[in-house]
């Protein structure tokens, strides 16, 4: 190895010392202008296990001001073993240091006219590889001549690549290329640089900096054993992005927000760019929106993206004028290479206060001019406001570009069908876009401007994409430019950078340094923890569990079930309350099955499912640790307890939330998961009265496991909730849960158990009684006396319709849980509008509320509405619905338009 750095450029260096200092000062200003000096977040949500940053062509450990990232020089380093093939490479310092980016790692480079390889002994797993290039003049190497390829064992990352042409086209000094690859067990990550040796023998390869940084497992990939994947746009299928696929990051955008520097990322040193260069504004103004409170990372891990990505977004801004709406698409355009598939991740978070429930903001998403979503509904995906979520798409860009860049567009369009959405609005918070390798393992595209065929030519003078700002580029190639000229060009650069609106990729910007390490958040040292995704599910030692429950002391028991007892305990030095379920050794299955099921459970994350925190499997103990639900079961708040009765609206909200949780169980996971034991004691309430479904999962999965479910002849479920069809035909489907949920709805309305033996025969089974009353038009008779006069007639009617539809005999005729959610939300809307209306009207004479008089312990009812007063005549259900239309005629038009047209769905 030769190191020419110190002697050759010595006088040049002296000459430029002052310039460097000036430039550094300007660099600081520049960074302040672009906001990339964002403060380091003190505790990153993720610490990468491998966190390698190589400053090629230098020695020792280097860092840069304002960044604690340490770059290790490759001279005499084990990462760059001096084997034969590598001896031809040399190292130099750039004759002109970079001004746009920090000196480390850009000012030094390794260069060679023959092939050389870096070997990284990394842990197995998914990694980022980042390559940094600063095409300047290094000794007698002029990087305008450098054309080379970069390969790993299986993939071609770059081919016939010219860093010079690429940076020129982008109007930048430097370029960073980021890749995602998986390293198998026992594999050494080799990165090989090979100059293209064609007619021009001057060609060489060079590199300024290399990073290899671990990423959380399956942050961007999908595990092989699951049927999950990105939505394959235009193909109506899923695309599973597996470990065999390498990807090149093309764009990573903080929509509506500021630039986020690598040190502001969640620990992976990703850079999030501004959207300005990509947003097309066709006439209408768009509203950036912003939110500044804490977000709930309940659906996705907090390392997915920095909170500031979700705290800002861009919306179309509730377009009220439908004429304008027809011509309005909020569109971003990204130049990409054609003939590749692209992976697009869209980040969402509902951060606008008014948009507080699903169906408030339903919109369309188009990717590459194809429909990707025709009912995008952020809250439906995320479960609640301020809860970040993302959606993944894969789109092919084939037969379009003819070797040139093509635009991949992402467009949001508001939903013109008013009955589907309360607001004509759309929102997006972040975009990530990756190129996926082709079938040959290739990721390389052509250089941006193929017209330059003679790399020996001097600095081309007309290569700037817009013919402006050429001074900037010259910085990179002219050696020994006078200080004045340099300073001028930097100032020129700063000005033009501020005004720049060139649509070009920014994945290539050079200021990217990435960072720190470690995989497992498991607190226990037990090796068995590694069998499961430790990010999702924590392993507890038996000692920890015993400490938390005082050795399973009975005084901590908060529930008993067929599977065993549930204890309340405290973990993490008594700071966190948890529910600890100790499975009965006799009643539970084998260890393998236990683990498989935990794996499945730990993947299930939903705001309305009680989350599994961890498990313990030790000494034949099988223990599950769940989040603790402070307010206990729903049943305790309905009857047979001293708790004050819940208001009708609260009950509706609880039903909606529980229905959402069940909907997620049925549709959100690998297989349909059938709860099999839906009841009011399995719906739990947290301290904020948020409802969550519990006790799922140690039941059977859906269709995939059907055969097994049949073998076990035990019909699981609780008396009074059992689907009669399941009982008759032993055929378990998710519609059995729908039936049980129908019973729950009746229970919530009537505040009585599903089976009461001490009453007259027709009332023993709540489901049967409620259904008969609904069909006979006497549904209001069975309502909880505490709700007397509090339920709007139209709401009760809708609620009854939903409940009874769940209880129909034939499972296939029952609604899906999604339909149930919609129906209940609609009922809630009806109730809210009626309440608003009646408080406005004071007398409430246009709104029919039910009121009751108690009569021999049975409830009877009369209507406030004078028309219905005549004793004995109860409105039939069809009477009720015509009454509904009448009663809402005075309502404001701001609620869902479905109200004006009850048959709309
Ligand atoms: C990686 O490089 C090391 C050292 O240069 C070499 O021994 C090994 O064979 C290479 N592995 C592959 C897969 O190319
Ligand atoms: C919005 O963009 C999509 C996809 O490009 C297109 O199909 C749709 O017609 C556009 N809508 C309007 C109103 O321009
Ligand atoms: C990506 O490259 C690998 C290795 O060559 C190959 O096995 C895989 O099929 C490629 N992926 C796609 C989507 O073609």
Reading off the top of the CATH hierarchy, the class of the largest domain is best stated as Mainly Alpha
Could you tell me the number of beta strands?
40
Main sheet specs: 12 strands, mixed
> Which residues sit in consecutive blocks of at least 5 with pLDDT less than 50?
1-42, 450-533, 700-714, 842-848, 850-905
Residues in helix, %: 10-25%
At the fourth level of CATH, the homologous superfamily of the largest domain is Transferase(Phosphotransferase) domain 1
- The CATH architecture designation of the largest domain is Orthogonal Bundle
Q: Note the total helix count.
A: 19
- Strand ordering within the main sheet: 3-4-2-16-8-13-19-30-24-27-17-18
Beta-strand portion reads 15-25%
Structural class: alpha+beta
Can you tell me the CATH topology of the largest domain? Transferase(Phosphotransferase), domain 1
Domain Protein kinase: 552-827
GO cellular component, one term: membrane
Membrane topology: Single-pass type I membrane protein
Pfam families: Malectin_like, PK_Tyr_Ser-Thr
